[in-house]
Every structure is written in structure tokens, then in C-alpha cells.
Amino acid sequence: MTRQKRRMNFIFLGVIVLGIAAALVLNALEDKIVFFYSPTDIATKNGVEKSQKIRVGGLVKKGTWKKPTAGLDHNFTVTDLRHEISILYKGIVPDIFREGQGVVVLGQFQPDGKFRAEEVLAKHDEKYMPPEVAEALKNSGKWKPLEETK
Amino acid sequence: MTAEIGHFSLILALVLSIFQGTIPLAGAALNRKQWVDVASPAARGQFLFVTIAFLCLIYAFLTSDFSVANVAQNSHTLKPILYKFAGVWGNHEGSMVLWVFILALFGLAVAEFGNGLPPTLHARVLAIQGLIGFAFLAFILFTSNPFLRLDPSPIEGNGLNPVLQDPGLAFHPPFLYLGYVGFSIAFSFAVAALIEGRVDPAWARWIRPWTLAAWCALTVGIALGSWWAYYELGWGGWWFWDPVENASFIPWLVGTALLHSSIVVEKRDALKSWTILLAILTFSMSLFGTFLVRSGILTSVHTFASDPERGVFILGLLVFVVGGSLTLYAIRAPMLKGGGLFAPISREGALVLNNLLLTTGAAVVLLGTLYPLILDAVGGGKISVGPPFFNATFVPLMVPVMLAPVVGAMLHWKRGDIGSVLGRLRIALSIALIGIVATGYFAENIKDLLAAGGIGIGVWLIFGSTVEISERISLFRGTFSNSLRRFARLPRSQWGMAIAHGALGIMVLGITASSAWRVENIQLMAPGDIASVSGYSLKFDGTKKIIGPNYQGERGTFIITKDGKKIGTLNPEKRRYPSANSETTEAGILTTISGDLYAVLGDERKNSAQGGSSWTARIYFNPLVAWIWIGAIFMAAGGIISLTDRRHRIGPPKTARSLNKNNSKISIV
After folding, report:
1. Do B341 and A29 touch (CB under 8 A)?
2. What share of chain A is helix, strand, coil (3-state, %, to 5)?
3. Quick check: B658 pLDDT over 70?
4. What number of other Cβ atoms are within 10 A of residue B648's Cβ?
5. How many angstroms separate the CA atoms of A60 and B205, rounded?
6. What does the radius of gyration of chain B's CA atoms come to, in whole angstroms?
7. Contacts of A47 in chain B (CB under 8 A)
8. What is the distance between the alpha carbons of residues A110 and A85, in angstroms, rounded to a whole number?
9. Percent helix / strand / coil, chain B, rounded to 5
10. In terms of Cα–Cα distance, which of B254, B272, B134, B295 is closest to B196?
11. Which class for B606: exposed (0-12), middle (13-18), buried (19 or more C-beta within 10 A)?
């Protein structure tokens, strides 16, 4: 086997592997990624795919969440102070979860139009604001420095 | 005073690094011995000054000297001593000092143990190390000075983020950095070899131990990080495909490829140019990981500060190092003449396949990590790329990587016979098939079937490596004493390889079982309530108040019984750290060989009717999860055993020919 031939084998194999990888990646980019929307995006139907899993972020609206006394069902409203969306979640909310806190929820719209969350994320730091939430608030024109929103 | 000494030492180290980075290079080019000889003393001096600076910073943290801004922002008098110490690198500035300390340590090691190297190569390697040191010292001094004073100094510090106050995490950064920075040696050797214009088997033999050591440390570092995520974050998962996890995993993948391709250079004098490229890429990915984590473009517990100046500096450094070394590579690599030829089915061929898949895998992870950032930058919307993406792309690519090692290790160099190798592996093959059928038989869905495949791969790796070793020592063929003799004589690198490949199998079993068959049970529990998961009953026994050194909290008790017999208790905690004004959740974990019972306390519900409180509790059974970290430990152990191979330590470098002779003697039998 000559050097050129070996190199061709090497390149051929490389092209095959890269081709497979590219096919896998393109396929996964179709349906394995999750888009983020603010409540305003959803309200104004800004290209929101209702049948897909999405992430929604904003502040937990004051007066919409109470620690349930029984069971694990949580109801609360996430707002970017312009529009809001009500969320259903069954499970344990993070330690730091409270009204006025910035949160990101991952979930899907149900056929009945309600948003059911599978995951609720709030960071272990009350000063922390998820960057998507901060931007959603900025976009809705309601961004205020952190101290004031508390 | 100590802060000033530390600061001044860093400046001296910076100045020294300029000399270390230039004079030996010029000396090697102009053939001046005195200039070449500057390299080693400069590396020693570098180590001395960086060590002084590092010790000064440690001293400031241990004595809680809050007149130092970095200490005030990141430490607290009430913090346990271990975390005061670990707090040194629990922040951006300190972690960069740790980085240069390890860099200087490696520089010292090359200066001391590199006497066997050709003097010009030795000097050039140290010079490149010096240049890297210069870049990072400048970064520290100009953008991230850990010794800045505060006036007036506060009475109390801000404390370390409580989730970082953990023994597993205290040692996660040092190991990770040992890995990242260790790859700088391979990088320096690669660049020095490009300047020299010569790559030979001896060169590969020199870089291999460094690469191996760095790889072992990175393996341990990543394992510690994932273990920490497992028990501290309270989600029961151990890998989240979080960008910062990927930032450490990408260099590991490319480094693993480098580890394997350097064998081909050493034994067969082939794949030289590719190996040089991998050495450059591995360190570039380490730098890139640092950039991702330190620049603040990602948000996570790792991102200590988002100062754009720092990001720009590291990005500039990255462009310079990657761009510069790749340009050098483009100019010089065509000079490197390839050596031994080989057929596609051969051990070299298997290693090439391993390399292609590992680097492609690394590229896919890199793409998945960067895609959201790029899409956001071009205004394409905010997305997150999580486990579903990586499971659909990275995992399939890794399947052949997991199948190949055992076969590859038994193929001959140059030209192999895959049929005969599979024949010799028939026992392992049958056991793996039994594993697949046995688990696949109970499959209820596609996921279970895929998991059965994963189990088959794990079993294949474990038994395949066992068969490989027993064949090398002629077990069951010839006398037992003969086997014993061979056992004792088998090169350590052979042991290391078989152990690492078997360990990979253990890890695959752990990953497969814990991902596919995890059981989760969330419920509201009052004292006396019983939850059952996977045949275990957990009786909730209420909570007690606890007071720790710098936190208060509640500790719950779950009594675990199986078939009516008590087998242990779980004590999950909820802690509140007043100094940081935050809460953490400590999982209660009982590890058994078949799986972990894992309990986390959610929130408390005052329940006046019963006079006590109910708690929401999340209880998991994670099958075989401990095997992941056991596998990682054995993998690193395999690397260390291989590192102690005589070949890496003593004697003049053997020629490829004599090594081949030894090999064929072993494999003919």
C-alpha cells in the first residue's frame, strides 16, 4: 500500500465519520433543542411553537403563588410585567423559589391551553436573575435595577 | 505585608517569564549554549516566585485577612478551615493563581526530569512554557490581581458560595487544572518539535508520560465534578451537559485521542503530523474551556465574575495561541515525513478510528455548547441545547469507540486479521451477547432495548480486556507457573491499558443502568410515612434542627428496610447560610453495589393537626450509579500504572525495531 493510498483511506474514513456526525447533528437540531420565550413572545405569537417543549422565563407574579398545604401541585403566574402566563407544576420547587423571584420553567402547552412545567429553575442565590429573564424584562420595557424589583 | 510580597513575587515571575520565553529560543536558533542554558534556571526561578505568591494568598485566606479584597469577597471567619483553604481557588483571581502555580510546577518538572532530552528541544519546550506563563501572569496582574487591598478593610467577609463548600469540590479545581495545564506540556513539546522540524519515536516517548499524567488528573477532576453535582445539586443526576461540564469534557476527549495517537508515533513512527495537531488542539481546547468558564459568557456556579475585560484578554490569548501554533503547524507540518505504513485493518487502523471518532465527538460537543451562544449573537432566538441533543448526537458516535478498544488492542501492528481476533474473543463476545439478551428480554420499550445494548457494550469491554490479558499471560494454555511468570513480566503499560479499557466498561454499565432505570418518587411525607422505591421501604422519621459552623438547618431521617430488614438510614439536610443568605440541599445517599438510594428534602409544610411538620421529599433509586465513579477511578489508575512502566522512566530510548521484536514475541504465543 502506498503512502497516497493510505492517506486516501484516512481521508475517506474521516469523511464518512464527519458525514455521520453532520447527519446526527442536523437531525438533532431539528427537534432536540429547546427555545426560550418570554410571556410577551407567547402572547404576541412571536413564532411560538405550541406543540413543542419550550422554556418560559420571567418573574413569579406577586400574589399568585402560595406554598401548597397538601400535595405537590403548584400554580403560579410568570410575568415579564407586560404579559403573563399561568403555569402548572407538580413537584418540588427550588429552595429559593418565591414571589418576585426570576424563574425559568421548562414545559409544554397542553391541549387545553395550560402550560404544564416539568422543571422549574431558580438559582441558589437570591441576587441572581436568569439572563434570559433579565432580557425578557428589558424587552418588555420593565427592566429595573435589581434592588428595586425586590 | 504578605499580600505585597505575593504581588511582588508575581511581578518578578512575570519578568522572569519574559527571559524564559525568549532567550532559550534565540539561543537554540543561534546555537549559543549559554543562552540555551538559561531555560532550566529560569523555570526554577519561575516556580519559586509563583510558589511564594501562591503561599501568600493561602496565608491571607487562612488568616482571614480582609484587607485583601479577594479574601473579603470570598471568605468568612466562620468558614471551616478546609474551605478557607479551598476558597483560595474558589474564586476567579485565586483560581488563576492556582493555574500558573501548576504551570510553574510542570515547568519545574520538565527542567528537572528533562535531562535526557536533546538540549535544544529541552530549551525550546521550557521557552514555550515560559511564554504561556507570561500570558497568564500578565492576565492575572492586569485584569485579576488577587492581592488588591481594601481600605478600610471590612470586619467580616462575604463568604464562599455555600454550594461550593464541599470536600468533593475542594479538590475538583486542582485536579482539573493539573489536567488542563498538564496538556500544556504536550503543547510545548509539539510546538518545540515543529520549530526543530523533527518528530521521532523518541519524541513521542517523551510526551507520552506528560500526556498520560495530565489525562489521569483530568479524568479524576471531571469525575469529582460530576460526583459533586450528583450529591450536592439534589437532582439525582450526575451529568447535565452543562456548558461548563462540556468545557472540561472537550479537552478530555481530544486528550484521549492524543494519548492513543502518540502510541502510534512511538511504536510505528506514523501519524506524526496528526499527533502534533492533536497536541495543539488539546491544549487549545483547555484554554478554550478556561475562556468559556472565566469570561462570563456562560452563567453558572463556575462563573465567578463577568468582567468583559477578562473575556477579551483570554479571547486574545486564545486567538494568539491557537492561531500562532496552527500557523506554525501549517508551515512546518508538511516537513514531517510519515513513517511505517499500515493496512486499514491493523492496530494503527483501530487507533485512527478511535482518533477520528473521539475528535468528531469533541467537535459535536463543542458545536452543541457554542450553538446557543452563536444563535443568540446573530439574533436567531434563545435556545438551550441539553441532554436530548447530546444523547442523539454524541452517544451514537461513541458506540464504535466503545466497541473497538478490545479488538484494536489484539490486532497486530501493520496488518491485522479481524476474524482471528474475534475468534480469540469468542468468550467475551458470548458473554456480551448473553448480557444483551438477558436485559433485552425484560425490555418494555425502545429505551430498555437501547439500554440492553449499553449493558452489552460494558460487559464486552470488561470481559474483552480480561481475555486480552489472560491471552498475553497464556492463562489456561501451558503451565500455571508459566502464566504466573508472564503475569509478573507483562509490561505495566499493558496492564494499564487493559485496566483502563475494562474500567471504561464498568463506567458504561453505570451510565447505562443509572440513565435507563432510575426510579423517582416525589411525595409529601409526614413523620411515620413510608415511601417505597425499587423494593426498598423508606420510613420518614421526622427532622431535627442542626447547627453547623456557619449554617443552621434541618436534618431528616429516613430508615431504610428491605424485606423487613433494616439496612441503613438516610439523612438529607437543608442548610441555611446566613452569611451568604442562601440555602443548600444536602442529599442523603446510601450507596450499595446495585445502586444508590438517594433522598432530598423539599419544603416543609406546617401541619397543625398532627402537631408535626410534613415535608415534600424526593426519593430516587439510581441503579449502578456508583460504578460510574468506580470506573473513573480505575481508568485513572490504569493511566497511573501505565505511567510507571519502565519504558517511561529509565534507559536510553529503545529503537522502534527492538520494541517491535518484543511485541511480536508476546503476540505470537
Report:
1. no
2. 30, 25, 40
3. no
4. 17
5. 60
6. 27
7. 381
8. 13
9. 65, 15, 20
10. B272
11. exposed
Q: Could you read off the pLDDT of A40-84 as tens digits, one per residue?
A: 888 887 666 677 888 888 888 888 887 777 778 888 998 888 888
Nearest to A25 among B299, B367, B600 (CB): B367
Which residue matches cell numbers 491493523?
B346
Q: How far is A112 from chain B (nearest CA, A)?
A: 25
SS3 category, B171: coil
Residues 6+ apart with CB under 8 A from B85: B58, B61, B62, B170
Chain-centroid distance, C-alpha B124 = 28
| CA proximity to B362, closest of A26, A17, A15 | A17
What element of type H or E holds A56? strand A54-60
Other beta carbons within 10 angstroms of residue B47's beta carbon come to 23
Please spell the DSSP secondary structure of B483-549, one letter per residue: HHHHHHHS-HHHHHHHHHHHHHHHHHHHHHHHHHS-EEEEEEE-TT-EEEETTEEEEEEEEEEEE-S
pTM: 0.90
Query: What values do phi and psi take at B399, rounded to 5?
Result: -60, -50
CA B445 centroid distance within chain? 34
Residue B622's Cβ-side half-sphere holds a number of Cα atoms within 13 Å equal to 26
Write out the three cell numbers for B479.
503451565
User: In the A/B pair of chains, how many CB contacts fall below 8 A?
Assistant: 112
Q: Centre a 10 Å sphere on the Cβ of residue B323 and count the other Cβ atoms it contains.
A: 11
Using CA atoms, how far residue B222 sits from B219, B237, B259, B389, B506, in Å, is: 5, 15, 17, 21, 17
Of residues B297 and B305, the one with the higher pLDDT is B297
pLDDT of the residue at B75: 86
How many helices (H) does chain A have, and how many strands (E)? 4, 6
Residue with cell 450526575: B238
- Could you tell me which of B512, B519, B389 has the C-alpha nearest to residue B451? B512
B357 and chain A in contact, CB less than 8 A: yes
Alpha-carbon torsion A61, A63, A66, A72, what sign?
A: negative
**Residue length of chain A:** 150
- Give the bridge partners for B544, in sequence order: B555
User: Which tens digit of pLDDT belongs to each residue from B182-215?
Assistant: 999 999 999 999 999 888 888 888 899 999 999 9
Scanning the structure block, which residue is given the C-alpha cell 406543540?
Answer: A51
What's chain A's Rg over C-alpha atoms? 22
CA-wise closest residue to B520 among B407, B639, B405, B602: B602
What does the alpha-carbon distance between residue B522 and residue B542 come to, in Å, rounded to a whole number? 16
Cell triple for residue B88?
A: 483560595
Is the CB of residue B634 less than 8 Å from the CB of residue B508? no
* B37 burial type by CB count under 10 A (0-12 exposed, 13-18 middle, 19+ buried): middle
Enter the C-alpha cell of residue B162: 455555600
DSSP summary character for residue B88: G
Interchain CB distance below 8 Å, A70 and B342:
no
The Cα angle at residue B307 between residues B305 and B309, in degrees rounded to 5: 145
Q: Is the dihedral of CA B65, B66, B68, B73 positive or negative?
A: positive
Any chain B CB within 8 A of the CB of A67?
yes
CA–CA distance, B623 with B634 (Å, rounded to integer): 19
Q: Which three cell numbers stand for residue B462?
A: 470488561
Put simply, whether A150 touches B (Cβ < 8 Å) is no
**In chain A, how long is the greatest CA-to-CA distance?**
77
| Rounded distance between C-alpha atoms, residue B265 and residue B270, angstroms | 5
Window B:121-160, CB contacts with A under 8 Å: none
Q: Are B16 and B45 in contact (CB under 8 A)?
A: yes
